[in-house]
Write a structure and sequence with these properties.
binds flavin-adenine dinucleotide; alpha/beta; five-stranded parallel beta sheet; 19% strand; single chain; 489 residues; 33% helix; eight-stranded mixed beta sheet
Length: 489
Amino acid sequence: MKKTIVIGSGFGGLAIACRLKAMGHDVTVLEKLDNLGGRARTLYHNGFEYDAGPTVITAPYLLNEIFDLFDKDSRDYFNLLRVKPYYRFVFSDKSSFDYGSSLKGMLNQIKKNYSKEDAIGYLRLLKHSKRIFDTAYLKLADYPFENIQSMFPYVPELMRIKFYKSVHSSVKSYLHNENLVKALSMHPLLVGGNPYTTTSIYLLIQYLEWKWGVYYGDGGTRSIVSGFKKLFDEEGIVYKTNCEVLNVNHDNKRIKTVETSEGTLEADLVVSNADPSHFYENILKIAPKKIFNKKSILKHSMGLFVFYFSTKKIYSDVQHHTIIFNKRHKELLDDIFDNKIYINDPSLYLHRPSATDKKNIQNSCDSFYVLAPVANNQSNIDWNEKGEEFCQHVISILSETVLPDLKSNIVDQFFVTPDYFENELNSFNGSGFGIQPIFRQSAYFRYSNKSQELNNLYFVGAGSHPGAGVPGVLSSAKVTEKLILKYNA
Ligand SMILES: Cc1cc2nc3c(=O)[nH]c(=O)nc-3n(C[C@H](O)[C@H](O)[C@H](O)COP(=O)(O)OP(=O)(O)OC[C@H]3O[C@@H](n4cnc5c(N)ncnc54)[C@H](O)[C@@H]3O)c2cc1C
């Protein structure tokens, strides 16, 4: 049996561990932190449990097919609950808009709140999103781009779907109302991109959400991670937490051993789920061969400030996913992505899981997290100094919009900053999602799922093709599996 080591237990790492076990490998997952899940791990604080990261679960079949590999039914491991509406958008003029309850309801809402033209425009936008989905998702999301030539056959189709436009400019070409354009071009932010620069290929997320729906784990995203843990135990996939990989020893062709904080392990095959930018710099300690992956030209995603809190008041009229837009939009994104400066007027994503799943009423309290995109650690922001001040801005915005009297209702609270992403999750520059989803960092231009430097090294997760987000990293495991089958079975 091939001795395979998976470095990291994000959803990409969990998925490839299962896929390789099903192929007959002897798999060990090494995780630096004290629990599994990576960005999707559980955070425990004063008797409360919080999902650390992903809360919008889409394309659930990608999870189910992993359990199918072992002839098991994923519903015996975790259940998914439908979330409706998908999102509530709240704008600076105090108006709001619900997206994703039903298409008919949404079109009526657009007609009533905005205009008949925008309702027609939205249908045309959705049609365009489907065209992109049919090409970019169905054909390319799990396609292993091994060289630049492998992209050539798709160029005509990519031209037809206007990949060269940004998500924002594509949405703007269908809709007039500014609030609506802001709202319906926000999807890149969910995978680490600026809507003004992310290739319009990512418009596919909009159709993907309508096609399969938006879900949440029954018992939280953490219930999905626990489901994987149970599968690991049953199938004999070994996992070691509190075990950081520090170094890999190789002969310039193959990795022989993996050095960890807990000792050295032999390996026939290594799959890294760690951020590739971190992996090359700190573990492999060589520069990537591929010119597109040179440190000097890579653009990493924004950072994230995430505030976890529970309140004695139950805010029952707040939806599961609320996005609160600040008045500044393009300028705010410029400050975050390009100028990389401290901002005090963030736009926010608020997660209130008890809207879908009452089990998230813990200790008779409502629990939440709120996420603010901020500059990554290429900025000079000292979060030790600024964190508390920033948190107060976030609390003020929430109090003035959807959570009145928040401050006096909080019973538990803590926050993480880009420093957590850099120091705990080993994310280069403390970026929230790895490298950005711009065209020159997509498909073959992204980090390769198979290393170009060593024969028995592979990558899985947000930095590799197709990219960040739960469906992205689960698809990346399919790409990596195909390449391992081809070269290292
Ligand atoms: C706050 C937040 C909210 C999000 N919301 C959503 C959402 O709603 N829907 C969605 O689809 N996506 C969402 N995302 C994105 C999504 O969570 C990620 O893209 C995805 O989970 C990343 O998975 P991954 O496989 O790349 O691994 P990661 O989750 O990044 O995990 C990598 C793991 O590798 C470990 N590691 C690193 N270095 C080492 C080492 N040297 N030795 C051992 N272990 C190591 C890390 O500790 C970590 O556990 C969100 C992300 C964040 C941060």
